[in-house]
Sequence to fold (503 residues):
Amino acid sequence: MAHSTVQTASPAMACSDEFNDFLVRLLPQVLALFALQQAFRQQPPAPELTHAFESGTAATLREIGRVIVAHEYNSLEPEVLDDCPLRLRFADAEYRRRPKSPKQVGTLFGEIDLRRYLYEAIEAGEPALFPLEKQLGITGGLATPALAERVGLWSVDHEQEQVRTLLRREHNVSWSVTSVRKVTTALRDGLAAFREEAQVARVLELLAKACASKGKHRPVLAAGRDGIHVPIRQEGYHEGATATLSVQDRRGKRLGTVYLGQMPEAGQGTLSAQLTSLLHKVLTQWHALGRPAPRLAYITDGGNHPQEYYRQVLRRMDDPWHPGQPLAWQWVVDFWHGCGYVNQLATALFGAGDKAARWFAKWRRWLRDRHHGVSQVLRSAMWHYNNGRQLRKGQTVDYWKAYRYLRRHALWMKYAAYRRQGMPIGSGVTEAACKTVFTERLKRSGMTWSHTGGQVILDLRVLVLSAVWHEAHGAYLRSRPQPTVSKQASKRCCSGHELIEAA
Fold:
Protein backbone atom coordinates (compact mmCIF):
# COMPACT_ATOMS: atom_id res chain seq x y z
CA MET A 1 0.00 0.00 0.00
CA ALA A 2 1.31 3.45 -0.85
CA HIS A 3 2.83 5.52 1.92
CA SER A 4 1.09 8.84 2.36
CA THR A 5 2.44 11.70 4.40
CA VAL A 6 -0.39 13.64 5.98
CA GLN A 7 -4.15 13.24 6.19
CA THR A 8 -6.02 16.50 5.75
CA ALA A 9 -8.76 16.41 8.30
CA SER A 10 -10.49 19.06 10.36
CA PRO A 11 -8.19 21.92 11.46
CA ALA A 12 -6.28 21.63 14.70
CA MET A 13 -8.05 24.79 15.86
CA ALA A 14 -11.29 22.93 16.47
CA CYS A 15 -11.28 23.52 20.25
CA SER A 16 -12.53 26.94 21.29
CA ASP A 17 -9.80 27.30 23.92
CA GLU A 18 -7.12 26.76 21.29
CA PHE A 19 -8.84 29.21 18.95
CA ASN A 20 -9.00 31.85 21.67
CA ASP A 21 -5.32 31.33 22.44
CA PHE A 22 -4.57 31.82 18.76
CA LEU A 23 -6.50 35.10 18.68
CA VAL A 24 -4.62 36.33 21.72
CA ARG A 25 -1.34 35.76 19.89
CA LEU A 26 -2.57 37.81 16.94
CA LEU A 27 -4.01 40.63 19.02
CA PRO A 28 -0.78 42.74 19.26
CA GLN A 29 -0.37 42.71 15.49
CA VAL A 30 -4.03 43.57 14.85
CA LEU A 31 -3.76 46.50 17.27
CA ALA A 32 -0.58 47.62 15.55
CA LEU A 33 -2.38 47.64 12.19
CA PHE A 34 -5.18 49.73 13.67
CA ALA A 35 -2.66 52.17 15.16
CA LEU A 36 -0.92 52.58 11.78
CA GLN A 37 -4.23 53.26 10.09
CA GLN A 38 -5.26 55.87 12.65
CA ALA A 39 -1.90 57.63 12.52
CA PHE A 40 -2.07 57.86 8.73
CA ARG A 41 -5.59 59.32 8.78
CA GLN A 42 -4.73 62.01 11.31
CA GLN A 43 -2.28 63.82 9.02
CA PRO A 44 -2.54 65.21 5.51
CA PRO A 45 -1.21 62.73 2.88
CA ALA A 46 2.44 63.13 1.97
CA PRO A 47 4.97 60.88 0.18
CA GLU A 48 6.99 60.30 3.36
CA LEU A 49 3.88 59.34 5.34
CA THR A 50 2.63 57.08 2.54
CA HIS A 51 5.96 55.26 2.48
CA ALA A 52 5.97 54.81 6.24
CA PHE A 53 2.34 53.61 6.28
CA GLU A 54 2.83 51.02 3.54
CA SER A 55 6.13 49.78 4.93
CA GLY A 56 4.72 49.45 8.44
CA THR A 57 1.59 47.69 7.18
CA ALA A 58 3.66 45.21 5.15
CA ALA A 59 5.90 44.45 8.14
CA THR A 60 2.91 43.94 10.43
CA LEU A 61 1.12 41.68 7.95
CA ARG A 62 4.30 39.68 7.59
CA GLU A 63 4.43 39.25 11.36
CA ILE A 64 0.79 38.12 11.35
CA GLY A 65 1.69 35.57 8.69
CA ARG A 66 4.65 34.39 10.75
CA VAL A 67 2.45 33.86 13.84
CA ILE A 68 -0.13 31.93 11.79
CA VAL A 69 2.49 29.74 10.09
CA ALA A 70 4.29 29.01 13.36
CA HIS A 71 1.03 28.10 15.09
CA GLU A 72 -0.13 25.83 12.28
CA TYR A 73 3.16 24.01 11.78
CA ASN A 74 3.66 23.47 15.51
CA SER A 75 0.12 22.08 15.89
CA LEU A 76 0.76 19.24 13.44
CA GLU A 77 2.34 16.99 16.06
CA PRO A 78 0.71 15.97 19.39
CA GLU A 79 1.50 17.97 22.49
CA VAL A 80 2.05 14.80 24.52
CA LEU A 81 4.86 12.39 23.69
CA ASP A 82 2.71 9.35 24.50
CA ASP A 83 0.36 10.27 21.66
CA CYS A 84 3.14 9.91 19.07
CA PRO A 85 3.76 6.63 17.23
CA LEU A 86 6.21 4.39 19.08
CA ARG A 87 8.13 3.48 15.91
CA LEU A 88 8.59 4.97 12.44
CA ARG A 89 10.24 3.70 9.29
CA PHE A 90 12.12 5.93 6.90
CA ALA A 91 14.60 5.01 4.16
CA ASP A 92 14.66 1.36 5.30
CA ALA A 93 15.61 2.30 8.87
CA GLU A 94 13.61 1.99 12.09
CA TYR A 95 13.26 4.86 14.56
CA ARG A 96 11.93 5.21 18.14
CA ARG A 97 10.39 8.32 19.61
CA ARG A 98 12.13 10.86 21.83
CA PRO A 99 11.06 14.27 23.29
CA LYS A 100 10.59 17.50 21.36
CA SER A 101 13.35 19.97 20.62
CA PRO A 102 13.12 23.47 19.07
CA LYS A 103 14.68 24.53 15.79
CA GLN A 104 14.69 27.88 14.00
CA VAL A 105 13.32 27.55 10.48
CA GLY A 106 13.02 30.24 7.82
CA THR A 107 9.65 30.90 6.19
CA LEU A 108 8.37 33.53 3.77
CA PHE A 109 7.14 35.46 6.81
CA GLY A 110 10.31 35.26 8.88
CA GLU A 111 11.99 32.77 11.19
CA ILE A 112 9.87 30.61 13.47
CA ASP A 113 10.65 28.23 16.32
CA LEU A 114 9.59 24.81 15.10
CA ARG A 115 9.07 22.42 18.01
CA ARG A 116 9.34 18.88 16.65
CA TYR A 117 9.76 15.40 18.05
CA LEU A 118 13.02 13.57 17.53
CA TYR A 119 13.07 9.93 16.52
CA GLU A 120 16.29 8.08 17.30
CA ALA A 121 17.57 5.39 14.94
CA ILE A 122 17.48 1.91 16.48
CA GLU A 123 20.51 0.87 14.46
CA ALA A 124 23.66 2.53 15.74
CA GLY A 125 25.34 5.03 13.43
CA GLU A 126 22.18 6.18 11.64
CA PRO A 127 21.29 9.89 11.93
CA ALA A 128 18.28 10.97 13.96
CA LEU A 129 14.97 11.69 12.25
CA PHE A 130 12.58 14.61 12.69
CA PRO A 131 9.31 13.42 11.07
CA LEU A 132 7.70 16.87 11.12
CA GLU A 133 10.56 18.28 9.05
CA LYS A 134 10.01 15.53 6.48
CA GLN A 135 6.26 16.19 6.43
CA LEU A 136 6.75 19.91 5.93
CA GLY A 137 9.55 19.45 3.40
CA ILE A 138 12.12 21.50 5.31
CA THR A 139 15.07 22.03 2.96
CA GLY A 140 18.61 21.76 4.27
CA GLY A 141 17.19 21.70 7.80
CA LEU A 142 16.70 25.49 7.56
CA ALA A 143 13.91 26.56 5.21
CA THR A 144 10.36 25.73 4.25
CA PRO A 145 9.88 24.72 0.59
CA ALA A 146 8.52 28.16 -0.34
CA LEU A 147 11.49 30.05 1.12
CA ALA A 148 13.99 27.51 -0.22
CA GLU A 149 12.59 28.02 -3.72
CA ARG A 150 12.91 31.78 -3.31
CA VAL A 151 16.55 31.39 -2.24
CA GLY A 152 17.27 29.09 -5.18
CA LEU A 153 15.78 31.50 -7.70
CA TRP A 154 17.69 34.41 -6.19
CA SER A 155 20.94 32.42 -6.27
CA VAL A 156 20.51 31.91 -10.00
CA ASP A 157 21.13 35.63 -10.60
CA HIS A 158 22.55 37.08 -7.38
CA GLU A 159 25.72 36.68 -5.38
CA GLN A 160 25.61 35.26 -1.86
CA GLU A 161 25.76 38.60 -0.08
CA GLN A 162 22.97 39.91 -2.27
CA VAL A 163 20.86 36.86 -1.42
CA ARG A 164 21.47 37.45 2.28
CA THR A 165 20.44 41.09 1.90
CA LEU A 166 17.26 40.09 0.07
CA LEU A 167 16.44 37.55 2.77
CA ARG A 168 16.74 40.17 5.50
CA ARG A 169 14.83 42.82 3.60
CA GLU A 170 12.05 40.73 2.09
CA HIS A 171 11.57 37.99 4.69
CA ASN A 172 13.28 39.16 7.89
CA VAL A 173 15.53 36.07 7.80
CA SER A 174 19.18 36.48 8.85
CA TRP A 175 21.36 33.66 7.55
CA SER A 176 25.08 33.18 7.27
CA VAL A 177 26.78 32.46 3.95
CA THR A 178 27.04 28.83 5.08
CA SER A 179 23.28 28.61 5.57
CA VAL A 180 22.58 30.11 2.14
CA ARG A 181 24.94 27.60 0.54
CA LYS A 182 23.44 24.71 2.48
CA VAL A 183 19.88 25.48 1.40
CA THR A 184 20.88 26.20 -2.21
CA THR A 185 22.86 22.96 -2.46
CA ALA A 186 20.06 20.91 -0.89
CA LEU A 187 17.56 22.40 -3.35
CA ARG A 188 19.85 21.72 -6.30
CA ASP A 189 20.35 18.12 -5.17
CA GLY A 190 16.60 17.65 -5.20
CA LEU A 191 15.88 19.40 -8.48
CA ALA A 192 18.75 17.88 -10.47
CA ALA A 193 17.05 14.49 -10.55
CA PHE A 194 14.09 16.00 -12.44
CA ARG A 195 15.98 18.26 -14.86
CA GLU A 196 16.06 15.79 -17.72
CA GLU A 197 12.43 14.72 -17.37
CA ALA A 198 11.26 18.33 -17.42
CA GLN A 199 13.50 19.24 -20.38
CA VAL A 200 12.30 16.25 -22.41
CA ALA A 201 8.68 17.30 -21.82
CA ARG A 202 9.56 20.86 -22.83
CA VAL A 203 11.21 19.81 -26.11
CA LEU A 204 8.29 17.50 -26.97
CA GLU A 205 5.92 20.41 -26.38
CA LEU A 206 8.00 22.61 -28.70
CA LEU A 207 8.11 19.90 -31.37
CA ALA A 208 4.31 19.62 -31.24
CA LYS A 209 4.02 23.38 -31.79
CA ALA A 210 6.52 23.21 -34.64
CA CYS A 211 4.57 20.44 -36.38
CA ALA A 212 1.37 22.47 -36.07
CA SER A 213 3.01 25.58 -37.57
CA LYS A 214 2.62 26.72 -41.16
CA GLY A 215 5.46 26.57 -43.66
CA LYS A 216 7.05 24.47 -46.37
CA HIS A 217 9.79 22.79 -44.34
CA ARG A 218 9.85 20.04 -41.78
CA PRO A 219 10.59 21.20 -38.22
CA VAL A 220 14.22 21.14 -37.13
CA LEU A 221 15.66 19.80 -33.89
CA ALA A 222 19.02 21.58 -33.56
CA ALA A 223 21.72 20.59 -31.08
CA GLY A 224 24.85 22.55 -30.32
CA ARG A 225 27.68 22.71 -27.83
CA ASP A 226 30.51 25.08 -27.05
CA GLY A 227 33.23 25.68 -24.48
CA ILE A 228 33.97 28.67 -22.27
CA HIS A 229 36.79 29.30 -19.82
CA VAL A 230 35.78 29.63 -16.16
CA PRO A 231 37.92 30.99 -13.27
CA ILE A 232 38.61 28.10 -10.90
CA ARG A 233 39.86 28.93 -7.41
CA GLN A 234 43.66 28.54 -7.13
CA GLU A 235 43.80 26.88 -10.56
CA GLY A 236 43.29 29.70 -13.05
CA TYR A 237 40.99 29.41 -16.05
CA HIS A 238 39.75 26.04 -17.31
CA GLU A 239 37.25 25.22 -20.03
CA GLY A 240 33.67 24.55 -19.01
CA ALA A 241 31.05 23.46 -21.51
CA THR A 242 27.48 24.26 -22.44
CA ALA A 243 25.03 22.58 -24.78
CA THR A 244 21.68 23.55 -26.27
CA LEU A 245 18.75 21.77 -27.88
CA SER A 246 16.45 24.03 -29.91
CA VAL A 247 13.32 23.54 -31.99
CA GLN A 248 12.59 25.50 -35.18
CA ASP A 249 9.17 25.57 -36.83
CA ARG A 250 8.32 25.09 -40.50
CA ARG A 251 9.37 28.65 -41.30
CA GLY A 252 12.71 28.42 -39.56
CA LYS A 253 11.65 30.37 -36.45
CA ARG A 254 13.18 29.20 -33.20
CA LEU A 255 10.40 28.32 -30.77
CA GLY A 256 12.48 27.57 -27.70
CA THR A 257 15.65 26.08 -26.27
CA VAL A 258 16.73 23.93 -23.36
CA TYR A 259 20.22 24.30 -21.90
CA LEU A 260 22.92 22.23 -20.24
CA GLY A 261 26.01 23.47 -18.43
CA GLN A 262 28.99 21.74 -16.88
CA MET A 263 31.99 23.02 -14.97
CA PRO A 264 35.47 22.23 -16.37
CA GLU A 265 36.04 18.52 -16.78
CA ALA A 266 38.64 16.59 -18.75
CA GLY A 267 37.00 15.28 -21.91
CA GLN A 268 33.63 16.90 -21.08
CA GLY A 269 32.21 13.43 -20.53
CA THR A 270 29.38 14.50 -18.23
CA LEU A 271 28.02 17.09 -20.67
CA SER A 272 28.24 14.59 -23.54
CA ALA A 273 26.35 11.99 -21.53
CA GLN A 274 23.64 14.50 -20.55
CA LEU A 275 23.15 15.72 -24.12
CA THR A 276 23.11 12.18 -25.52
CA SER A 277 20.53 11.02 -22.97
CA LEU A 278 18.37 14.08 -23.61
CA LEU A 279 18.44 13.54 -27.38
CA HIS A 280 17.75 9.82 -27.08
CA LYS A 281 14.72 10.30 -24.82
CA VAL A 282 13.27 13.13 -26.90
CA LEU A 283 13.52 11.19 -30.16
CA THR A 284 12.36 7.90 -28.64
CA GLN A 285 9.31 9.45 -27.01
CA TRP A 286 8.51 11.52 -30.11
CA HIS A 287 8.59 8.33 -32.19
CA ALA A 288 6.42 6.52 -29.62
CA LEU A 289 3.78 9.22 -30.10
CA GLY A 290 3.61 8.26 -33.78
CA ARG A 291 4.94 11.59 -34.98
CA PRO A 292 7.18 12.05 -38.04
CA ALA A 293 10.91 12.49 -37.57
CA PRO A 294 12.16 16.09 -37.43
CA ARG A 295 15.23 17.14 -39.37
CA LEU A 296 18.31 16.97 -37.20
CA ALA A 297 20.98 19.67 -37.20
CA TYR A 298 24.19 19.87 -35.21
CA ILE A 299 25.56 23.42 -35.32
CA THR A 300 28.94 24.17 -33.74
CA ASP A 301 32.35 25.59 -34.42
CA GLY A 302 35.11 23.25 -35.50
CA GLY A 303 36.54 22.61 -32.04
CA ASN A 304 37.89 19.25 -30.94
CA HIS A 305 35.11 18.32 -28.49
CA PRO A 306 32.24 19.19 -30.90
CA GLN A 307 33.91 17.25 -33.73
CA GLU A 308 34.60 14.26 -31.52
CA TYR A 309 31.04 14.23 -30.25
CA TYR A 310 29.66 14.30 -33.79
CA ARG A 311 31.87 11.50 -35.03
CA GLN A 312 31.71 9.20 -32.02
CA VAL A 313 28.14 9.77 -30.81
CA LEU A 314 25.73 11.55 -33.15
CA ARG A 315 26.63 9.65 -36.33
CA ARG A 316 26.17 6.35 -34.45
CA MET A 317 22.84 7.04 -32.78
CA ASP A 318 20.11 4.58 -33.79
CA ASP A 319 17.16 5.90 -35.75
CA PRO A 320 13.86 5.01 -34.00
CA TRP A 321 12.00 5.44 -37.32
CA HIS A 322 14.41 3.11 -39.20
CA PRO A 323 15.70 0.44 -36.78
CA GLY A 324 19.24 -0.64 -37.48
CA GLN A 325 20.14 2.57 -39.28
CA PRO A 326 21.93 5.63 -37.85
CA LEU A 327 20.17 8.95 -37.48
CA ALA A 328 20.65 11.40 -40.34
CA TRP A 329 22.34 14.33 -38.59
CA GLN A 330 23.45 17.34 -40.58
CA TRP A 331 26.53 18.89 -39.04
CA VAL A 332 26.75 22.60 -39.84
CA VAL A 333 29.86 24.59 -39.02
CA ASP A 334 28.65 27.90 -37.65
CA PHE A 335 28.50 30.50 -40.43
CA TRP A 336 29.81 33.33 -38.26
CA HIS A 337 32.71 31.19 -37.14
CA GLY A 338 33.51 30.58 -40.82
CA CYS A 339 33.27 34.33 -41.44
CA GLY A 340 35.91 34.86 -38.80
CA TYR A 341 38.35 32.80 -40.84
CA VAL A 342 37.41 34.62 -44.06
CA ASN A 343 38.20 37.88 -42.27
CA GLN A 344 41.51 36.39 -41.15
CA LEU A 345 42.33 35.62 -44.80
CA ALA A 346 41.48 39.21 -45.77
CA THR A 347 43.66 40.72 -43.04
CA ALA A 348 46.59 38.41 -43.88
CA LEU A 349 46.38 39.21 -47.60
CA PHE A 350 45.75 42.96 -47.52
CA GLY A 351 46.48 44.12 -43.97
CA ALA A 352 44.05 46.23 -41.99
CA GLY A 353 42.22 48.71 -44.21
CA ASP A 354 39.53 49.33 -46.77
CA LYS A 355 40.81 46.80 -49.30
CA ALA A 356 40.62 43.99 -46.76
CA ALA A 357 37.16 45.15 -45.64
CA ARG A 358 35.85 45.20 -49.23
CA TRP A 359 37.27 41.76 -50.02
CA PHE A 360 35.84 40.32 -46.79
CA ALA A 361 32.39 41.87 -47.37
CA LYS A 362 32.17 40.39 -50.87
CA TRP A 363 33.37 36.88 -50.06
CA ARG A 364 31.36 36.66 -46.85
CA ARG A 365 28.24 37.05 -48.99
CA TRP A 366 29.52 34.50 -51.49
CA LEU A 367 30.24 32.06 -48.66
CA ARG A 368 26.62 32.36 -47.56
CA ASP A 369 24.76 32.65 -50.87
CA ARG A 370 26.72 30.80 -53.57
CA HIS A 371 26.78 27.13 -54.40
CA HIS A 372 30.23 25.84 -53.36
CA GLY A 373 30.80 29.26 -51.84
CA VAL A 374 33.67 28.14 -49.63
CA SER A 375 35.56 26.77 -52.67
CA GLN A 376 35.22 30.10 -54.44
CA VAL A 377 36.48 31.95 -51.36
CA LEU A 378 39.54 29.71 -51.24
CA ARG A 379 40.16 30.09 -54.98
CA SER A 380 40.14 33.88 -54.71
CA ALA A 381 42.36 33.82 -51.63
CA MET A 382 44.91 31.57 -53.32
CA TRP A 383 44.99 33.81 -56.44
CA HIS A 384 45.79 36.86 -54.28
CA TYR A 385 48.35 34.85 -52.31
CA ASN A 386 50.19 33.86 -55.50
CA ASN A 387 49.85 37.20 -57.31
CA GLY A 388 49.82 39.78 -54.55
CA ARG A 389 52.45 41.30 -52.34
CA GLN A 390 54.88 39.20 -50.34
CA LEU A 391 53.44 38.37 -46.91
CA ARG A 392 55.36 38.65 -43.69
CA LYS A 393 55.94 35.55 -41.60
CA GLY A 394 53.09 36.26 -39.19
CA GLN A 395 50.68 37.01 -42.05
CA THR A 396 51.67 33.79 -43.78
CA VAL A 397 50.98 31.77 -40.64
CA ASP A 398 47.57 33.41 -40.23
CA TYR A 399 46.76 32.90 -43.90
CA TRP A 400 47.46 29.17 -43.93
CA LYS A 401 45.72 28.61 -40.61
CA ALA A 402 42.50 30.16 -41.97
CA TYR A 403 42.90 28.54 -45.40
CA ARG A 404 43.32 25.03 -43.97
CA TYR A 405 40.39 25.48 -41.58
CA LEU A 406 38.01 26.48 -44.36
CA ARG A 407 39.22 23.72 -46.66
CA ARG A 408 39.04 21.07 -43.94
CA HIS A 409 35.46 21.99 -42.99
CA ALA A 410 34.11 22.79 -46.46
CA LEU A 411 31.88 19.69 -46.40
CA TRP A 412 29.87 21.20 -43.51
CA MET A 413 29.75 24.78 -44.86
CA LYS A 414 27.18 24.45 -47.65
CA TYR A 415 25.28 27.46 -46.42
CA ALA A 416 23.34 28.24 -49.60
CA ALA A 417 21.91 24.71 -49.66
CA TYR A 418 21.11 24.81 -45.96
CA ARG A 419 19.20 28.08 -46.34
CA ARG A 420 17.15 26.73 -49.25
CA GLN A 421 16.22 23.78 -47.06
CA GLY A 422 15.22 26.01 -44.13
CA MET A 423 18.08 24.74 -41.97
CA PRO A 424 19.82 27.01 -39.46
CA ILE A 425 23.36 28.06 -40.36
CA GLY A 426 24.44 29.87 -37.19
CA SER A 427 25.11 28.65 -33.67
CA GLY A 428 24.08 31.97 -32.16
CA VAL A 429 21.88 30.31 -29.55
CA THR A 430 24.79 28.17 -28.36
CA GLU A 431 27.22 31.08 -28.41
CA ALA A 432 24.66 33.07 -26.41
CA ALA A 433 24.39 30.16 -23.97
CA CYS A 434 28.03 30.67 -23.02
CA LYS A 435 27.01 34.16 -21.94
CA THR A 436 23.67 33.39 -20.30
CA VAL A 437 24.61 30.12 -18.60
CA PHE A 438 28.17 31.02 -17.56
CA THR A 439 29.39 34.58 -18.08
CA GLU A 440 26.48 36.55 -16.61
CA ARG A 441 26.75 34.70 -13.29
CA LEU A 442 30.12 32.97 -12.98
CA LYS A 443 32.48 35.51 -14.59
CA ARG A 444 31.76 38.72 -12.73
CA SER A 445 34.60 40.90 -11.53
CA GLY A 446 36.89 39.16 -9.06
CA MET A 447 34.97 35.87 -9.00
CA THR A 448 36.55 32.45 -8.68
CA TRP A 449 34.73 29.18 -8.17
CA SER A 450 35.15 25.69 -6.84
CA HIS A 451 33.98 22.95 -9.17
CA THR A 452 31.24 21.94 -6.74
CA GLY A 453 29.98 25.45 -5.97
CA GLY A 454 29.89 26.49 -9.61
CA GLN A 455 27.99 23.37 -10.61
CA VAL A 456 25.28 24.08 -8.04
CA ILE A 457 24.61 27.45 -9.69
CA LEU A 458 24.77 26.02 -13.22
CA ASP A 459 22.29 23.26 -12.41
CA LEU A 460 19.82 25.83 -11.11
CA ARG A 461 20.42 28.29 -13.97
CA VAL A 462 19.71 25.77 -16.73
CA LEU A 463 16.31 25.02 -15.17
CA VAL A 464 15.35 28.70 -15.26
CA LEU A 465 16.79 29.34 -18.75
CA SER A 466 15.07 26.21 -20.11
CA ALA A 467 11.71 27.42 -18.71
CA VAL A 468 11.24 24.18 -16.74
CA TRP A 469 11.87 25.38 -13.16
CA HIS A 470 8.27 25.05 -11.96
CA GLU A 471 7.83 21.60 -13.51
CA ALA A 472 11.05 20.28 -11.96
CA HIS A 473 10.30 21.91 -8.60
CA GLY A 474 6.78 20.47 -8.49
CA ALA A 475 8.06 16.98 -9.32
CA TYR A 476 10.73 17.31 -6.62
CA LEU A 477 8.22 18.29 -3.93
CA ARG A 478 5.91 15.42 -4.89
CA SER A 479 8.78 12.93 -4.74
CA ARG A 480 10.11 13.73 -1.28
CA PRO A 481 10.00 10.58 0.88
CA GLN A 482 7.91 10.49 4.04
CA PRO A 483 8.19 8.43 7.23
CA THR A 484 5.54 5.80 7.91
CA VAL A 485 4.25 4.37 11.18
CA SER A 486 5.52 0.90 11.98
CA LYS A 487 4.16 0.79 15.55
CA GLN A 488 1.35 2.99 16.78
CA ALA A 489 1.12 4.66 20.17
CA SER A 490 -1.08 3.09 22.83
CA LYS A 491 -3.29 6.22 22.59
CA ARG A 492 -4.23 7.63 19.20
CA CYS A 493 -3.37 11.28 18.58
CA CYS A 494 -6.32 13.64 18.55
CA SER A 495 -4.59 16.03 16.14
CA GLY A 496 -6.22 16.66 12.79
CA HIS A 497 -3.05 15.52 10.99
CA GLU A 498 -1.64 12.01 11.40
CA LEU A 499 1.00 9.91 9.76
CA ILE A 500 -0.46 6.99 7.86
CA GLU A 501 0.43 3.52 9.04
CA ALA A 502 2.22 1.42 6.47
CA ALA A 503 0.27 -1.67 5.48
